[in-house]
Design brief:
The structure holds 2 protein chains of 2 kinds.
Chain A: E1 3-4, E2 8-12, H1 18-25, H2 41-52, E3 58-64, E4 70-80, E5 85-93, H3 100-114, E6 119-125, H4 129-137, E7 143-152, E8 155-165, H5 166-188
Parallel strand pairs in A: 5-6
Antiparallel strand pairs in A: 1-2, 2-3, 3-4, 4-5, 6-8, 7-8
Helix pairs in contact in A: 1-2, 3-5
Chain B: H1 3-18, H2 37-51, H3 57-62, H4 66-78
Helix pairs in contact in B: 1-2, 1-4
Classes of the chains: A alpha+beta, B mainly alpha.
Chain lengths: ~190, ~80
């Protein structure tokens, strides 16, 4: 499952991406609020092999269209075909990337327009205020606190869940698409 | 274009986009939770319009404080 955007594309993760994913997930400052993942390529490849067999998860690379260089990674998982809901997360981008808005715009398009979901939610460690703010800035107003939801490296954290319903998607889409277009225009002017 | 005017414009744009008053003298993305990735590009685009300048792609990501933005704008206008 791929989707082309204005400056970026989402494409499924492959074995060739394992090194990049390990490097990104183990970058100090980027992994503070992530569960411990693979620390080596072999371990990551083993995880990916298990992922390839799953029918309820999609794991995407965020890639720049002009040079096909990977800038980030994230997933859409726990896809429930009966309730048409799924969670997205494990979102990490290179610190210098401008892909934040467009990658999320593309992910929601895949969720609603390709997978056919009615509702998508994202849970963020409440302390991770910058990412909580990002979801708010997207225009997602349906949110709730999940006390002690996460345990990361032995410490409990509250989560903030932002939920986007299909009925609201068109409004959020307009905002994200406009900013994605403007960003791509700046990137392409050289 | 003098530093005071540029800084005033930058702070005004930040206040409008972030929808909150700026607290510290040196406002940075690090110390301002609401200055997220989406707001950041809104801020940079608004500043390009207000200050009649264009930021390089590398600058769009790297200009993460009022001081850095003001320095970059003054440098461009001096060039």
């Amino acid at each position: 499952m791929c989707l082309e955007g204005y400056a970026f594309r989402l494409r499924p993760v492959t074995d060739q991406d394992a090194g990049f994913v390990v490097e990104l997930r183990n970058t100090p400052g980027l992994n503070q609020y992530l569960h411990a993942g693979a620390t080596g390529v072999e371990e990551q490849l083993a995880w990916q092999a298990r992922y390839y067999d799953r029918t309820d998860s999609y794991y995407f690379m965020v890639e720049r269209r002009t040079n096909e260089v990977a800038e980030g990674v994230f997933g859409l998982y726990n896809v429930d075909r009966n309730t048409a809901t799924a969670e997205w997360g494990s979102w990490i981008l290179r610190p210098d990337s401008l892909a934040a808005v467009e990658s999320v715009y593309l992910l929601y398009r895949i969720a609603f327009e390709q997978v056919g979901l009615q509702s998508v939610y994202c849970r963020t460690v409440a302390e991770n205020r910058k990412v909580v703010s990002f979801h708010d800035s997207c225009g997602i107003t349906a949110r709730r606190i999940l006390p002690g939801h996460y345990e990361i490296r032995g410490k409990k954290y509250d989560a903030v869940e932002h939920r986007l319903e299909l009925a609201v998607w068109s409004t959020v889409r307009t905002r994200l698409e406009r900013l994605s277009q403007l960003t791509a225009r700046r990137m392409n002017r050289g | 274009m003098d530093r005071q005017r540029v800084e005033h414009t930058v702070r005004t744009v930040l206040t409008v986009v972030l929808k909150e008053p700026l607290n510290s003298a040196d406002v940075t993305r690090q110390n301002t939770a609401s200055w997220d990735s989406l707001k950041h590009i809104e801020i940079m685009f608004a500043l390009e319009d207000e200050l009649e300048t264009q930021f390089l792609e590398e600058e769009l990501a790297a200009l993460d404080s009022v001081k850095k933005i003001v320095d970059a704008v003054l440098s461009k206008h001096a060039a």
